[in-house]
Structures are given as structure tokens and as C-alpha cells.
Design brief:
Helices cover 0% and strands 55% of the residues. It contains no helices and 11 strands. Strands 2, 4, 5, 6, 9, 10 and 11 form a 7-stranded mixed β-sheet that branches. The protein has a 4-stranded antiparallel β-sheet with strand order 1-3-8-7, with no helix packed on it. It is globular and about 40 Å long.
Length: 116
């Protein structure tokens, strides 16, 4: 299993970034995909998840209404659109793959910094 995040960078408060997660080594359409964040000096914080069927979508409380997770099974890719970003969104964002409510594999992560 390989997961590779991209799209991180610097955003101003109120700005937007779009993350992508390229997946390989497994049948992408059979697994849920998720995003988590590790802020400086803090542990993992779950951000969003989308089930294998694409119909079950879940967000953390601070991400609701601002983030949109999606998946493109034909491309084995998951994405996350992040709008109206805030400094609390700063951290390393990790893409994860799993099933039955757990994540089995994580990518190396991409840095997101929200600052003026």
C-alpha cells in the first residue's frame, strides 16, 4: 500500500487549499479514506472520512461547513478541499486508508500552514 499526499502549502486566514492523496497497491474502491492532522506539539486529530461507497461522509466539528472530502475511484485518488481556513488548521495532514472504522495505512503527510 502506498499513499502520497500533495497540495499542502501556505494559506492566509480565510483562504483555501486543496489536498490530494494518490493511492496504489490495493483495490481503492473497497476501502474508506480519511484525513487526519497533527498540529505542532499535539497528537493526531481526525479531520474527515469518506466510506468506500462514497455516501458515508464524516467531518470533525471544526471542519464541518469548511472542508469537503471526495474520492475518484477511477483515479485511485482522494481529495480534500479546505475553505475559509483558520490558523488552527495548521499542521501536517495525513491521508489514511482502512475499513471497519479504523485506518490501516497512512501516507507521509503534507504540511499545511495558515498564517498571515
Amino acid at each position: 500500500v502506498q499513499l502520497a499526499e500533495s497540495g499542502g502549502g501556505l494559506a492566509q486566514p480565510g483562504g483555501s487549499l486543496r489536498l490530494s492523496c494518490a493511492a496504489s497497491g490495493f483495490i481503492f474502491g473497497d476501502y474508506s479514506m480519511s484525513w487526519s492532522r497533527q498540529a505542532p506539539g499535539k497528537g493526531f486529530e481526525w479531520v474527515a472520512a469518506i466510506k468506500d461507497d462514497g455516501d458515508g461522509i464524516f467531518y470533525g466539528d471544526s471542519e464541518k461547513g469548511r472542508f469537503t472530502i471526495s474520492r475518484e475511484d477511477a483515479e485511485s485518488k482522494a481529495s480534500q478541499q479546505m475553505n475559509n481556513q483558520a490558523p488552527g488548521d495548521t499542521g501536517v495532514l495525513f491521508c489514511g486508508e482502512g475499513t471497519s472504522g479504523r485506518v490501516d495505512y497512512w501516507g507521509p503527510g503534507t504540511q499545511v500552514t495558515v498564517s498571515r
